[in-house]
Amino acid sequence: MKNIVIIGGGLGGLTSGALLSKRGFNIILLEQHNVVGGCATTFKRGNFTCEVGLHEMDGLDKNDLKSKIFKELGIFERVKFVKISEFFKAKLNDSEFIMPHNINNAKEALKKEFPNESIGIDNYFKKIESISKALNELGNLKKFLNILKFPVNIFNLIKNSKKDIGAFLDSIIKDDKLKVILNSNLGYYHDNPYELSLIYHSIAQYSYYNGGSWFIKGGSQNLSNALADIIRENGGEVITKANVIGLKTENKTISKVIYEKKKEKFEISSDTVIANTSPFQIYSMVDKKFYDKKIDKLEIAPSLFTIYLGFNKNLKNIYPNNSYSTIFIEDIKNQKELNAKNKSLENRAFIFVDYSKIDSGLTPIDKSFGVLCGIDYIEDWKNLTNDEYKAKKERIKNRFLDRLESHYPNIKNYIEFSEFATAKTVNRYTLSDKGTAYGFAQTPKQVIDGFKIKSKTIDNLYFVGSWSEPASGFTGVIISAWMTYNKLKNII
Fold first, then answer.
1. Which domains does the chain have, with CATH numbers?
2. Which of 121, 123, 293, 371 is the most exposed place for a label (fewest CB within 10 A)?
3. What are the C-alpha distances in Å from 187 to residues 30, 200, 201, 204, 328?
4. What is the rounded (10 degree) CA torsion for 459, 462, 467, 472?
5. Sign of CA dihedral 219, 223, 226, 227
């Protein structure tokens, strides 16, 4: 039986481990944190279950690959997914717009609001649908780029493949407000519309419009735990608080993985290693001759800040007209102003997620939970003493709560607890370089050039998760696990 060691217990490592364990491989998964899941975790504060990373998961329709993966693993029998009624609400200074699911509904709502942009709206949805369907049919980006004989629509995709979403919207739409609304959930993926791949935007957004949005009842930890249970049920091991500190190589393969737990060192023999962590961490533990210099030239995606809020009342009863996910893009008049780098942290756009609007299973019925979330950079927190760091967090948190209160009068009076997680927090709990939540940035050049790491220097090393193909986010890392599984499933 082949011995597969998985370094990192995020969704990529867990999903690949679950699939491979059911195939008959001996899985040993090592996670440095005290729980599995990476960003798909929860934590407790009193009787509040605090969701760390998931606001809404896209897809789960019959054509969504995640549905196939979850059916194969029996996830739908273990985890309940709650449907969210709308995609998001965009809150501007002078107005608001609710984006519905379903392309026809979205087009109808947008054309009602922007009647002079009907052609541009049709062109936008036609583009994201055609890109998504073409890439779905072709399987993956590499095949998309390497096969020469394509129908005409595929050649058109190649022609536009180096475009960013900002430039594309500029080319088909004149109204700046409409462009901002179509890109208002930019923070799901990146920090600048003029640096985000049109292909990546299209695939991700189309999946929301086509399959809707979903939340994992009780929190994303339930999905992570279910995947870990599948590994154990099939004879594998899931070891938490296991910090990998070394890799031994022989003949271009990793022969042993060394980890530390409770100050004791252990060595595991490995036929195959799956790394659900950044390539920088892996290559720091092997001989320099194996280092892939390509990664030094790649741009790393931004991080996120999150303010966790426990409310002593059920907000649904106090603010009945509130939406589940509201994106505050105040003072943003055009796409260029969506670029988070152009604004100080406390003035950036942010999302408020009110989990009381769904059957979240996170709190008692008389209370509720919510988060404020936006783009963050680890550079925002450098060169601070511990006291300075705490003071800055408190100041920034209060600034965002004041902004929230301006839209929800007296909401601060209902706050039972609040905690502020920064890029440094993400780095501390996940070891992700620069605290990024998304791995390498999804820029047009990096997407098309195939920036995702596939180790060519170590034969039995495979990367999975947000640093590998095809993408980051819950959907991206689950699909990356499926791709890794298909590479390895027949090597027993």
1. 3-82+218-298+440-488 (3.50.50.60)
2. 293
3. 30, 13, 11, 12, 11
4. 150
5. negative
